[in-house]
Amino acid sequence: MTMTDVSTAARARWLAVFSVAVGTFTVVTSEMLPVGLLTSISATLGVSDGTAGLMMSAPGLVAAVSAPVLAITARRLDRRVTLLGLMALLAVANLAGAFAPNYPVMLAARVLTGVSIGGFWAFAAGLGLRLVPERSVGRATSIILAGVSVASVLGVPAGTFISSFAGWRTAFVSMGVLALALLALLAAALPPLPGESRAEAAEPAPHGPPSPAPKRSLSRLSGPLKVVLVLTVLIVAGHFAAYTYVRPFLEQVSHAGPAFVSVALLLYGVAGVVGNFAAGAWAARNPRPVLVTLAALIALSTAALPLAGLPLIMLVVWGLGYGGVGVTLQLWIMRSGGGEMGTALFVGAFNVSIALGSFAGGRIVDGVSLSAVMWVGATLAVVSAAVSGMSRTAASSEGRV
Asked: Transmembrane residues, as ranges (predicted)?
């Protein structure tokens, strides 16, 4: 093989990695989309803000179930075919949501979104091992998972920005079109990726060792890994209890107009990207103090919003805090030695937490007030910081963190 052939093959591998990263960005952005559009959708479809929050709860719960279910039922299918099918499903779901005539149809579309999220994220997370040489697996995995982190903080501002000019249905159409474009890119960029019965039962993959056996991963579900899963539930549920209803809070409590809300959420997204990369560099050495700091920033901002106002400043602080949560928890999972089972449980815990947080927040919004839900987010962030801080002794004793 000539040097030109080697260079071409390397470029093809990295194109596949980046296409999968755009895929994780697309599925998570689709999941987050209703947050910035909540009041517009609820007004159009004739439901309360709290009921509209089920658009976040439903896909979160479905994603948490679909990840392990698809990992089992689709394990013999070519991963390329599976990812293409899940991206096609996401395109259908987003377009169905865009043209939903009523709330039940919208909720059904969001259920389909959840299936795509859980399956795509679960399969994509481990593809670095099969797409690049062993020495580059860490970098490839970081790029793929960066799509999740960036989407978590940029997805809402992007949807809100589109909605401010062309309406919420156009935001859903845009995500549907992006999913269709990505479907074509994945079809062109991904090589065949044989399923379990053909790949794992044969010889080890050419670019790295085989995945650890489930029994071994299960045996390591203890200590630091359990702490990370608990922290995931606490901090993510608290965040989404408050953040799902940030637009109605800004409009009804802070008396902000549509243009202000769009700018505020855009600044939140920019701050989130900064927080993501800053926390990633810091947490690579020791994720525990990073998570304590991030939780403190979230607690400060969500508590200050109903007390002091200053929505632009507080949303920037909030974005800096939550923007680093995903990458910090992922690095902690890796340092805890959780393996594939740890990653699968993390995906499930993350999505369940989104669903529980947005659902609980909706009940608080409808039953108490919009300000009260901010206090719930602050309280759970404080608890997260405390749990993370108290885990120091146990983590140090096991030499993991």
From this structure: 54-74, 81-101, 107-131, 143-165, 171-190, 225-246, 258-278, 290-309, 341-360, 372-390
Contact 70, 61 (CB under 8 A): no
Q: Which amino acid is at 383?
A: V
pTM of the model: 0.72
Q: Domains in the chain, please, with CATH? A: 9-211 (1.20.1250.20), 216-401 (1.20.1250.20)
Q: What angle do CA 247, 249, 254 make, to 5 degrees?
A: 110
Model confidence pLDDT, tens digit, residues 115-148: 998 888 778 876 777 777 767 666 676 677 777 7
Q: Are 401 and 336 in contact (CB under 8 A)?
A: yes
CB atoms within 10 A of CB 7: 10
Using CA atoms, how far apart are residues 48 and 343, in angstroms rounded to an integer?
36
pLDDT digits (tens, 9 = 90+) for 342-371: 666 777 788 788 878 888 888 898 888 888
- Tokens in use for 202? 């044969």
Q: Which residue reads 């499903």 in tokens?
A: 89
